Amino acid sequence: VLVNRKLIIAHFWLAFAAFGLALVLGAWQMFIRSPLHTWITNPEWYYRSLTAHGTVMGYVFPTLVAMGFGYAITESALERRLVGARWAWAGFWLIAVGAVMAMLPVALGRASVLYTFYPPLIGSPFYYLGVVLVVVGSWIWVALMSVNLRDWKRDHPGAPVPLAMFANVAGSYLWAWTAVGAAFELLLQIIPVALGLKNTIDAGLARVFFSWTLHAIVYFWLIPTYIAYYAIVPRAIGGKVYSDTIARISFILFLVISMPIGIHHTFPDPQVGAGFKFIHSAFTALVALPTLLTVFTICASVEIAGRLRGGRGVFGWIVALPWDNPIMLAVAFSFIMLGFGGAGGLINMSYQLDTSVHNTQWITGHFHLIFGGAIVIMYFAIAYDLWPHLTGRALPDLRLVRTQLWLWFIGMIVTTFPWHYVGILGMPRRMSYFDFTDPALSQEASSVTLSAIGGFILLISGLLFLLILGRSQVAPRVEAGPYRFSVAVHPLTTVPAALNGYALWVALMIGLTVTNYGFPIAALVARQDTSVPAVYVGAQ
Amino acid sequence: MSAREIFSFRNSYFTASVGVAVTLFILTALGGFIVLPYAQREVKFAGLWDAICSSAGVPRRADSIAAPASAHPTSSVVLTSTTLARPSQQSIGRGATLAQRCAIRHGPTGISQADSPNLAGQYASVIFKELLDFRSGARTNAVMTPFAVDLSDQDIADLAVYYAYLPRLPAYHPEPQLPPTRIVIYGAPLRGIAPCGSCHGSLDNKPGSPWLEGQSQAYMKAQLQSFASGQRRNDISQQMRNVARVMTPQEIDEAAAYYASQPPEIVKATD
Known about the structure:
By secondary structure, chain A is mainly alpha-helical. Chain A has helices spanning 5-32, 43-77, 85-107, 125-155, 163-194, 203-236, 244-257, 274-286, 288-308, 313-319, 326-348, 351-357, 361-391, 398-424, 439-442, 445-472, 503-526; strands spanning 121-122, 200-201, 532-533, 535-536. In chain B, helix 4 (89-98) crosses helix 8, helix 11 packs across helix 12 (239-245) and helix 11 (217-229) packs antiparallel against helix 13.
């Protein structure tokens, strides 16, 4: 039974409200730089919008979803009241204040530096301090997850930690450590320059620090989705988790190897040696492993549901699945997008193949397909699944829910497939306009138009999502019952200590960070001749 | 199970996970630091350690061939956030006295009647940079160079803050205001030309770039042409030369005519 419903629903509403605003900006960006619109006369507006879109979608929205879902998991999976609800509210308000504080200078044109910061570009210190508040707010959540699990373990010595909570805490530790890279960049490098205490910055070192955060943050976004795959989907469609142990191993693998691989984001950067790029490239290949394990386990779990529903033969179980169930639909869409996105990711992580797509629209297409597609569609599913338990009211119109999910899936495919294509043709990302009248670019015009139309479909779907949630706030009351997660085919009664805790895995995560990042960072820190003058945004 | 038991080789999870991680790191390190460097046939290493250092990203000194001496001095102006910050009244006053010798060409109020730049209200960083470039020879001009060679650093800073202090006034030869042309608003993305206003003020201002509104059309055209021909070369990293070289003569005319016809009052007050 969820006790702190208000806390959880506040996180979700703030997350989705911010998501709605950023979605409008995203659709506007797609439109004004497509052939449907004349060139924007002041590119600054584009970069303002891009900074706001990225900051909200990258830092605010998924963090709040992970936090809200994390609190819901704590109370439902551990079957006890959340410890430290006041702290949780403090974290929430830190994020709310931080988000506003970061967005004001962006709106005023004082921080058009994009969410990846891009030193030596330097914006208003309030932008960075706002981002820091968001991260600090989320670290409170990390601490609370750890404290709540410790308390539960103390009262249940030796008992297996419920899978959803095990994964949730793994995600929180992953975030705690991966955020350290950007925290170093902000606190030690950027903020002193933004405050005027220094006027040079080592942009290369800053990029290495950011890569520490940038890749694993994607897995932090991904963890709620994977929890939904394992802990919601089988229950929602009437099946069982094929293997609790494989699930645990997948989350452990994410914790250990999503971290020491970020340098594949800096393949063309001269400040990192080719040897380290190779090591990171090889470790990146490994991170496909937990995803493949998950795809296998979830397909097996779904097959169990299909067969329990009377499906026969090699494909009969697929037909027998409850396709009118929104969760079934969401997970199918999510897997399709994960498949395409993952295949594209294999190209990005290969040192040589990356050179042909690096910094092109291919990359934009890739991370929108993975994050905006595979991940966010499961955030919708999580919200739909949790909502009656949070509001005590029904989701009235399942057809509308299905329409919303279909539109999101179609919109994301229509947006990102042409993006991938024009990326291969060489279209750079982060440009406010393109001269489509030029013979060299005219062949890209129709693809870009198509992807802008996809953007509008996404916008409609996103607004529909908010409408569905908003309408259910005034729907008739229902008794939703306790919130439960999937059970395994063979529920665990005992579990090896290594698969029931994190000490070993956090130690490995930190150890691999030291081996894979230690030398590149130390070498850059030790050199005195690598700084460049800062370029202040919006200043004379 | 206590921490000691988890971090023990008797714990098969510990042995396996640490073993796999260490093995993978060693294998990938061998690949990245030894196998792949030597696989590049065109690269020669002094030895194994050299190959490892090279692929670890340790910078190496380039071959000791001196860079060819440039026939032309390049701009060496350094502008920090404190160089021209908070000018004193004395500095502006000294600048006003020194500026009397500039009045014959640049006008007593900083508005030229002789197709020279209008300096009243120009950014201090711009005047500072151009005078230093004239003095060092990075920019040459038969009239300006003799004036500049005798100026001290302090003189130059004083002149810069004095002209920046003067109010922006309408140009001497006001023209009907022309609509902006494509090259001014958008640049030419495929030729690598940014919109003029992305440095020169209407969209954003980059330090060292003057505002252009109401300047002499003949002067601006001549500067674009001399950037294009390489005669003028005090732009940092060839920023203006790269732009001017790929502009068509018609675009040069349009840009000069457009800026000459704009009233200086519309310069964005970013400073």
